[in-house]
Amino acid sequence: MTTQLQTMPAVAPAMIAALTTVRRRPDESTPVPDLATRIDGVSVNPRALAAYRTVCGFDSTSHLPVSYPQVLVAPIHLQVMNRKGFPIPLLGMVHLRNSIEQLRPIEALETLGFSVDVGQLRRVKMGLEIDVNTECRGKDDEAPVWRSTMTILHRIKEKNGGGFRKPPGAPASLVESQNALTIDIAEDTGRRYAKVAGDYNPIHLHALSAKLFGFKRAIAHGMWTQARCCAELERACAQATRSVDIEFKRPIFLPGKATLKWAEGEAGIEYGLLGRNAGEVHVLGHLQAGLR
């Protein structure tokens, strides 16, 4: 049964409640109940949208950036993950992958509705992963106009003591591509993005809080990384994004520097965010442009 919310949950109490989730001890057999949640009547704050564009690098247009609906629905994600039955502790969880499909441009002045549901746990080499699925509708739409799947990880070291495997290098198509752009990422990027997106996971905010979860410094938000890549690729091809998939391979430590490389083909744009050498891959993804 779907839970219908009348107002958007407040973020601050939800972040405090997230502290209590550290007691969760899931394994692959832990069942996940029906956590479906819906909210209608969501509108965009123009000042918040402008701040988001600035932090992520999007140009100003009459429609929402492809990644912005996920910011609007983030308080619902947090509320769902705080609910009894969601198996993964919120603090320290890692965003593994994200996919977005946009079926039409969403105007900034539209009133929107969101529905969120959660999949079942899957055991993978690095631990346990789970999908959080979202659909967005306009006020008069019967079918979704935007949808996303966010895959998150609860890290568990391998029983044989082998630790986490080194991710593979960049594919040759990206290494050889002449399409490249250097991106400087400031130390305060995590705090600036948290302010506009409401994601105050401590692994993104400061080196001291990130060290509590095994990171040497704070790392960039996955959704900031996806947004920044989309913003630059949209400028490069002069078209809006229809769909985008991203896999997060290595953390981007703050401050940092990365090179966005991309290769265009019949199936769309293959892209990657690379470190100081092509063997260090932060993200890999695929983008289809040409939204109408």
TrEMBL record:
Q: Which residue ranges does UniProt annotate as crossing the membrane?
A: none
The segment(s) forming the MaoC-like domain are: 181-255
Q: Which SUPFAM superfamilies match?
A: Thioesterase/thiol ester dehydrase-isomerase
Looking up PANTHER family in the UniProt record yields:
(3R)-HYDROXYACYL-ACP DEHYDRATASE SUBUNIT HADB, 3-HYDROXYACYL-THIOESTER DEHYDRATASE HTDX-RELATED
User: What is the recorded name of this protein?
Assistant: MaoC/PaaZ C-terminal domain-containing protein
